[in-house]
Amino acid sequence: MRVSVWVGSILFLMGSLGCQHLPVHPERPDVTAHEEVIEADADDVFEDTAEDEAADEPPETTAEVETTDELPEANKITLARLQGHWSLPFSVAIDGMGSERLGLLQIDGVTGSVEVEGQSTFVFVDQRIPWAAFGYTLYQLVAVRADQWFVLWAYCESGQLTWVYLEAVDGTPLTYEAATGTCGDIDGETVAPIDLPAVDLPFPAAPAGFSVDGPQIQLAEGGGGYAQAGEERWELYPFNQVDCTTDCGTPGWWEIHSLLWGPERREAGFGIVYLFLDPNVPTNAQVSLVPSILFPTLRTSPSTFFEASWTAPR
C-alpha cells in the first residue's frame, strides 16, 4: 500500500498509488524521502499495480499465540506473546551502526537486532523497497518491545548503509541519522523463527489540528476515531504526522501515522491515513488508509480509499 519505489507501509505504504521517491537534498534523503512523490495524473495515480507489487509480497507465515480469556483494557493495546516463523522471498544482510539514537544494527536473513537508545531489540525485515532512481534499496524493519513499537527504514547504497529513519508509535517524530556499515540482499525464500513479547501498549496522544469526516472513516481533532475497511473495523489512534504538502511532490498530502486496533479480533498494527490535496483526484479517493504489518496474524490488509472531508493544521 506497491510500486517500484517505496512509501511502508514504504513501497508498501503508498503501493496502490504508483508513485516515486524524491529526496529534497541530493546529498542525503530528506526527512520525508521515504514517502512517495506523486507525479502521475489523477487517472494514473489510482491505476491498479497489483501485478507489479507481487514480487516482494511475503508468503504465508505461521505463528503460535498465547491465548487469554481476559478482556482488553479500554485505554491500551494488549496482545499475547507471539511465537512463530517469518518468511520472505529474499534474504538481507546488514551489519552497521547508527550515529545518534541508533547503535548496532544487524540483520542476517530476515531477522536480527537493533540498539535503540542503548537497548537491544529484536527486529525483523518487513519490506524491500528498490529506489533505482537514486541508487538506493530501502529495507523496512519492525522492532517490537512490550511497551513500544519502532519502524525503521535502512538506506543501502552500493552495498553501504548510509542512512536510517526511525519512528516510534509513542509519538516520537520521524527522524533520520547517518549510518555506517554494509548491507545487501539476495533472492530466495528465507524463513526464521520469531518470538515477540506480550504487548502492553498505551494509546498515544494524537497530533493536533486534524479531523476526518466520512461515512466509513472518522477522526476527531486531537483524538482517535475509526475506519471501516471492507469487513474489518479498526479503531484509529494517531501518533505522528508528516507534512508532505510542499516538499514531497505533486500533488501534496498529509500523513497521519496511526495505531490500528481491532479489540474484538485482538489484532493490532500501524498504518498511515493519507489526506490528498489534489482537487482533481476523485472525491472518493481523497482519503486513504494503508496498513502495514498486523499482529499477531503477521498479515497485511489491503489499502482502502474513502469518501470523506478533512481538515489539517493551518
Helicity, in percent? under 10%
Topology as a string of helices (H) and strands (E): HHEEEEEEEEEEEEEEEEEEEEE
Count the helices. How many? Answer: 2
Round the mean pLDDT to the nearest integer and report it.
Answer: 79
Q: State which percent range the strand residues make up.
A: over 45%
Query: What's the number of structural domains?
Result: 2
Distance between the termini: 28 Å
Shape: globular
Q: What is the strand tally?
A: 21
Low-pLDDT segments, ≥5 res: 1-28, 31-55
Structural class: mainly beta
Q: In this structure, how is the largest beta sheet organized?
A: 10 strands, antiparallel
**Radius of gyration based on Cα positions:** 18 Å
Summarize the structure.
This protein is mainly beta and 314 residues long. Helix content is 3%, strand content 52%. The chain folds into two domains: 59-125 and 140-199, no CATH class; 201-311.
Question: Overview of this structure, please?
Answer:
The protein folds into two domains: 127 residues, no CATH class; 111 residues. It is globular. A hairpin with a 4-residue loop joins strand 6 and strand 7. Helices cover 3% and strands 52% of the residues. The protein is mainly β and 314 residues long. The chain has two helices and 21 strands.
